[in-house]
Write a structure and sequence with these properties.
The chain has 392 residues and is an alpha/beta fold. The protein is 40% helix and 16% strand. It folds into two domains: 208 residues, 3-Layer(aba) Sandwich (Rossmann fold), CATH 3.40.50.2000; 167 residues, Rossmann fold.
Length: 392
């Protein structure tokens, strides 16, 4: 009797928010019809919420769930908001389940699931501890416990029996070439870039019918540098007073971002005559809005990928991005679209606004890149890598 291959997907905090869960959601959709998929998580998850937020069509009946809610009772033991405690709890559980599955796929950064697995690294979350703790994790049990008592190893890594050597034997997927170079530099592993999808039905709006305005996509968090963007475009408006800015996003859910979100919202209100904040609008409304504008601006430094920039490219906008992280790659590594200072950003933006022929050239160069960030391409890649792991 035919049996579909069984795939265990491991992701601790499943919620309709952030780029990490976007990769998870589209991975579940990619696998749900060809594989017997089970999601191991630390709390119940809502497929309908993921579908609304990410534009997926996950069928709840097609995805099995293993929920270890006991993890929720211990998550508060470590006050560090970036703790790997919940991930380690699930890694321990996954090791005990591996014999039931043909392939395991960790979608939440570095993962040790026992035998070689597939892992998706958004950024090397454990890079800062790797040189210091790697040798301690390979010690005999008694010596490892002593290292934990000395504080050389976090107890969560001990609980998970985490091994960097096993993690490095995984097949490693990354969200951008920039992240891949970082991961390779830290761990010395081969990386395969699988860009997250920029989902949505993007209208093919002719350039001449778009507004001479900008879009900025991102939550109200300090790293997105939204007040900086408003200041830069404020300088551009001295030459082009009709220019407008549309900010598409939401307030960050992280408690430590609350104060920053309030200050950013204040900057938006002070410029409300030309800045509009579209707060948490439905996914189906994002693509049409972006397609009404000609330009995009993204200012986060060392953004690991930059899904907002990918959405701008798919919408047919010309994006101006900081010359760091993943966004320059999304913009085709075009020096006319990258900047490092406010003065350079203003200069390059004004030049493009001033020259219609340059606009046409940039639009033509960016058009073939739209296909790189479509969901179908992402899902094909995920299925291909899962099949590679099956053969391995």
């Amino acid at each position: 009797m035919f049996r579909r291959p069984r795939v265990l997907v491991v992701h601790s905090k499943v919620e309709a928010h952030g780029g990490g869960c976007s990769v998870l959601a589209w991975s579940l959709q990619a696998l749900q019809h060809d594989y017997d998929v089970t999601l191991l998580a630390s709390a119940p998850w809502d497929a309908a919420a993921l579908n609304r937020y990410y534009g997926t069509s996950i069928e709840p009946a097609a995805i099995g769930s293993l929920i270890y809610s006991a993890a929720g009772r211990i998550l508060r033991l470590d006050p560090d908001p970036s703790t790997i405690q919940p991930n380690c709890y699930l890694m321990r559980k996954a090791k005990g389940l591996r014999s039931r599955f043909d392939c395991a796929f960790g979608t939440d950064n570095e993962t040790d699931l026992g035998p070689p697995a597939l892992q998706y690294v958004h950024y090397p979350h454990l890079a800062h501890v790797y040189p210091k703790v790697r040798h301690n994790l390979d010690l005999p049990p008694a010596s490892k416990l002593a290292a934990c008592l000395r504080g050389s190893i976090r107890p969560w890594m001990l609980m998970a029996n985490f091994s960097f050597d096993r993690m490095c034997r995984n097949r490693t997927l990354v969200n951008s070439d920039w992240t891949g170079r970082w991961v390779q530099r830290v761990y010395g592993v081969e990386c395969h870039t699988v860009n997250p999808p920029a989902a949505g039905e993007f209208p093919d709006t002719p350039w001449e019918k778009r507004e001479d305005g900008f879009v900025l996509v991102g939550r109200l968090a300090v790293g997105k540098r939204i007040p900086w963007c408003i200041d830069v475009l404020g300088q551009v408006r001295r030459l082009y007073p009709g220019l407008r800015l549309h900010i598409v996003g939401s307030a960050s859910r992280a408690p430590y971002d609350a104060g920053d979100a309030a200050r950013i919202a204040g900057a938006i209100r002070r410029n409300s005559s030309w800045v509009t904040f579209h707060d948490n609008i439905p996914r189906a409304a994002v693509a049409p809005l972006l397609a009404t504008q000609k330009y995009g601006l993204h200012a986060m430094v060392d953004e690991h990928f930059g899904i907002g920039v990918a959405e701008m490219v798919r919408a047919g906008c010309i994006p101006f991005v900081h010359n760091s992280g993943g966004p320059p790659g999304i913009a085709g590594n075009d020096p006319r679209l990258t900047y490092e200072t406010a003065a350079e950003a203003v200069e390059k933006i004004v030049r493009v606004l001033r020259e219609p022929a340059l606009q046409a050239n940039l639009v033509s160069n960016l058009a073939p890149r739209k296909a790189l960030y479509c969901p179908e391409r992402f899902m094909d890649s995920i299925r291909g890598h899962v099949n590679q792991m099956m053969r391995r």
